[in-house]
Design brief:
The protein is of the alpha+beta class and about 290 residues long. It has 5 helices and 18 strands. The strands form 4 sheets. It has an 8-stranded antiparallel β-barrel with strand order 10-11-12-13-14-16-17-18. A 5-stranded antiparallel sheet has the order 8-7-6-3-9, with no helix packed on it. A two-stranded antiparallel ribbon has the order 1-2. The longest helix has 19 residues.
Length: about 290
């Protein structure tokens, strides 16, 4: 009788734990991707507790690859689990995948829409992808999570670099230097008009910009091409697997070999391939890592 009681108790606890973490599973399979749901961002730690060392921060609405579900805890009055994730590839120190822990109370299964009335979330949107002027005249704007920016002229070389802030929903402030082959200019501060049309189209000082990615800027074998910086946004409602092979500033038609190389990188970086021709390859790769 005692053994039966212990067995039932264990079974009850197991069922309870399963119910508490059910948001992370679909048909008993761990969900591929969830989204940061915190306007102020989310800390990634090296261990599943608040005393863990901070590894990096994640901006609101950022998709993250789920690896493992840890113990339940309560933070900010929210009961949820610690979740092991694949750290975004731009934070890796090498080409080797790196992992960390976040509190699942600030993760959502559904894609988070940016609050376009919030300067903080507009900043998050700017950082979610690279932007190129709509007429593809090769002026690229990138905004980084550390508050730095770069406006580069792809064909001619040179550009601007420095720090940026979103003063309000219609004002972008940049403080930086112009640079070219002759060196840097003296530091300047510019206040630019800003208008977000939607998540895939913005206007800066009257010029329109759309998402940009170019997987051909550097040799694919090195892993250091621009794809690593811009893989975490929504690209005109498409997955990047669709977007990257349809649009590029050089009208390049990708070979099948190039497509496979790019897709293999995206899979390794944890970019969900659901609904694309690379879904099976994605599942095979991650099934060897997620047990």
């Amino acid at each position: 009788m005692k053994r039966i009681f212990v067995f039932l108790l264990i079974l009850s606890v197991a069922f309870q734990l399963s119910a508490e973490s059910k948001k992370y599973y679909n048909n008993k399979k761990l969900i591929n991707t969830m989204y940061v749901n915190s306007l102020e961002g989310l800390k990634v730690r090296d261990t599943p507790n608040l005393s863990g060392k901070r590894i990096c921060g994640l901006v609101n609405a950022l998709p993250v690859k789920i690896i493992e579900i840890g113990n339940e805890t309560e933070i900010d009055g929210i009961k949820d689990n610690w979740v092991k994730i694949l750290i975004p590839a731009y934070e890796w120190e090498s080409e080797n995948p790196e992992y960390g822990w976040v509190f699942g109370g600030y993760l959502s299964e559904n894609k988070i829409k940016y609050n376009l009335n919030s300067p903080i979330d507009i900043k998050n949107l700017l950082m979610s992808k690279g932007w190129i002027d709509e007429k593809y005249s090769a002026l690229l704007k990138t905004f980084s999570i550390d508050g730095t920016f770069e406006f580069s002229k792809l064909a001619a070389g040179g550009g601007d670099t420095g720090n940026f802030s979103v003063k309000d929903i219609n004002t972008l402030v940049i403080k930086g230097n112009f640079y070219d082959e002759y060196g840097k200019s003296t530091e300047y501060t510019n206040t630019l008009s800003l208008k977000v049309i939607n998540e895939n189209r913005i206007q800066i000082n009257g010029d329109y910009y759309v998402p940009y990615i170019d997987a051909l800027s550097y040799p694919l074998e090195t892993g250091n091409h621009q794809i690593i910086d811009f893989i975490y946004g929504d690209y005109e409602g498409k997955s990047i697997y669709e977007f990257i092979f349809l649009k590029n500033p050089y009208s390049h038609v990708y070979t099948e070999k190039e497509k496979k190389e790019v897709a293999d990188k995206l899979i390794k970086y944890g970019v969900d391939a659901s609904g694309t021709e690379y879904e099976k390859s994605y599942d095979v790769y991650w099934s060897s890592i997620i047990k």
